[in-house]
Design brief:
Pfam families: DLH. It is globular, with a radius of gyration of 18 Å. It is of the alpha/beta class and 257 residues long. The chain is built from eight helices and eight strands, in the order αβββαβααβαββαβαα. It has one domain: Rossmann fold (3-Layer(aba) Sandwich). Strands 1-2-4-3-5-6-7-8 form an eight-stranded mixed β-sheet, with helices on both faces.
């Protein structure tokens, strides 16, 4: 039976003034890590659940903010932590280490995605058939791999994430749909990866949408990308136009059956 989480029940019973996004730090089922759950405290209808997978930095303010924005749109969002000890990097050297550790244990990553999916489906207003996974940078690669493994998600959306794989999606493996947003000026996602992905998705016969933004660099949805790029001499840059267009496309992707 679905349950209304205790924190939401308490807030509703208290009769808060006006809608607001509320959040709760949670433990994933089965001891599979942790995350942060976001929803509108006035939510009273069935909606989609969205797993948000962080950039290589870890579950930082940016990942939380993306989940919070999804909750403001009326979805129930769960920002999941895929790093073993919940680390958050402040330097690319640490981020690279944490990411490599996660990539070396794909079984743990899948277990955490599945636990996040289970937790979302337990929420009172989440439609069991409308649980999506959205990833940014490192997380974008993670959600694409979940599709390739045949995870029973309604869809996956990757933003400025790596597109290459050693195990291409096979026909009939994934029943959901795929959205990819990438920047044409992103040296971390070369044109060859984009072309190969289009061929892969076409051959697999999945519902697929590609957004490719001229001039957009890596991290184009992150308002702090310019600051991070300058500080660490990395090809990162925020692109407000690409962010706005891809955000609208994500909402349509989630809302369209």
């Amino acid at each position: 039976m679905k349950r209304l989480t205790a924190f939401l029940c308490l807030l509703l019973c208290a009769g808060g003034a006006g809608a607001e996004v509320i959040e709760q730090d949670i433990k994933l089922p089965g001891g599979a890590g942790n995350g942060v759950l976001f929803m509108d405290d006035d939510l009273d209808r069935m909606t989609a659940g969205v797993i948000v997978v962080h950039e290589w930095w870890g579950l930082n303010d940016y990942a939380r903010n993306r989940a919070r924005l999804l909750a403001k749109e009326g979805y129930v969002a769960l920002a999941v932590n895929l790093y073993e000890q919940g680390q958050v990097a402040s330097h690319p050297k640490d981020a690279k280490t944490f990411m490599a550790q996660a990539q070396a244990n794909p079984e743990r990553t899948t277990a955490r995605i599945n636990a996040a999916k289970t937790l979302l489906r337990q929420q009172q207003y989440v439609d069991d058939d409308r649980v999506f996974a959205v990833g940014y940078c490192f997380g974008g690669g993670v959600v694409l791999e979940q599709a390739r493994q045949g995870n029973d998600l309604a869809g996956v959306a990757s933003f400025h994430g790596p597109l290459g794989t050693e195990q291409p999606l096979q026909s009939g493996t994934f029943q959901g749909k795929v959205l990819v947003a990438t920047g044409q000026a992103d040296p971390m996602v070369p044109a060859e990866q984009v072309s190969a992905l289009v061929q892969e998705m076409t051959a697999a016969g999945v519902e697929f949408q590609l957004l490719s933004f001229p001039g957009a660099q890596h991290g184009f949805t992150n308002p702090r990308a310019d600051q991070l790029g300058q500080r660490f001499e990395m090809p990162l840059a925020y692109d407000g136009h690409a962010d706005d267009i891809s955000w609208g496309a994500l909402k349509d992707f989630i809302d369209t059956p």
